[in-house]
Amino acid sequence: MRLIYHIASRPEWEAALRAGEYTVSTLGLSLAEVGFVHASTAGQVAGTADAFYGGADDLVLLVIDEDKVAPQVRYESVPDRPERFPHIYGPLNTDAVVRAVPYAKGPDGRFPPPPEE
């Protein structure tokens, strides 16, 4: 199983469970606005969270089985980062999400890496 991760607000994830698909690209932006759902590898999650989600509350980390994602997943370069990030080009089918775990800053004020699988 190849895992990728997406940081979501709990209310948006709960709405996706009811709808059967997740259509949020990133904090405050929809799939329709951006064209893909942002995702990260295990080594990228904490840095992404620290850079973009520092002021957000009530987050969940979606643990996604990449092999079960219905839309195409492309690993692409992003500005100012040397590594490629997974981008999901369509609504994320909720059955590809292995689990959703609460995701918050640690005592040091930084987000932790994802839990070991």
UniProtKB/TrEMBL annotation:
**Which organism encodes this protein?**
Spongiactinospora rosea
Under the heading InterPro entries, the entry gives: DUF952
Domain of life of the source:
Bacteria
- This protein is called DUF952 domain-containing protein
Q: Which Gene3D superfamilies match?
A: Protein of unknown function DUF952
Q: What is the lineage of its organism?
A: Bacteria, Bacillati, Actinomycetota, Actinomycetes, Streptosporangiales
Alphabetized Pfam families for the sequence: DUF952
